[in-house]
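Before a computer can learn anything about folding, someone has to put a protein's shape into writing. The three-dimensional part falls to structure tokens, numbers that each stand for a local backbone shape. The protein below has been through that process, and both of its lines are reproduced in full.
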Amino acid sequence: MYVKSITIVDIDDDNKENIIIANRFGFEIKVFFNYFNGQLNDETDSISYAGIHKKVVGDLNDDKKLDIIAIGELTNNITLLYNTGNGTFNDKIMISTNSIVADIDLVDMNEDNQLDIVYTNLAAVVVLFNTDDHTFSHETLISIVKSANLFKVININDDNMSDSIVTDFGRKMSIILNHGNKSFIHYRFYSTEYIATYIFTADIDNDNKIDVICGYQDSTFGIYFNKGNGFIDPPTIYIAEFKYEVLFIDDLNNDKKPDFILAQSKDYKISIYYNVDNGMFPNVRIFPANGDPFVLKPIDINGDGKMEIIVSCYDGKAYAYIGLLTILC
């Protein structure tokens, strides 16, 4: 099983976080239900879907159930899987776009309390607006971004509207402001020394402004601190202890500060950079992994208030496995 992505979410409304994985080579999505005893049940029946690249979850039709949206690798199709509420999903609905979908998310872009589909297609940022009958509109261009690859949606200028941060293969990061009424403006861009391989948003320095974090090809990561007026500072660059292949951000020690998790394949290591009050990361802990870690997500698997990390590792053969790395913070 080649686990391409892991999503942690309560899919069946029992107040326990479940695990949804995308099996790239098995062409399927699987859901593992959590019993809060440190164990996961056998997965649900597989949802067939070829060449899964990424998936996100959200309530697409206002029925209070979390649905799954997935994109394939090097395809122009978006697949919607509607949650029935009993751990199964209805037959998939396919939306075809005009070009290959590189990244995707679900965000309310026009303040109508409905989740819209936002994606990059290597040439632009595009939105499919969710309509009153919970179908999706034709493609609306947000902004042309040549070679766009990754994006995140945040409120960058404190106007309560969803703006976009977009990185591209040309080593730039763009800010696209939302002006309301489905209108957007390409506001400014920042040059980066390397191509971004990861992008996250979080309040790193506890100033109630959402900052932007990028991981780069050279195994550094940069924090763009948000000034709150549509501007962000040039990045503060951090050099990792080793060349990493995976970067993730979450609060691992319940101190209300987002920490950084890095995984290295060569020596089978996972490192945690703990955040202190000023947005610095002086404390690092290193844990061994039982293989080459290439996908990870934090989860409190047994409800004890301590975070574990779900890790998918490559074992040198043609498959991967899901393991639990327990972090005692």
About this structure: The chain has a mean pLDDT of 83. The chain has no helices and 27 strands. The first strand starts at residue 3 and ends at 9.
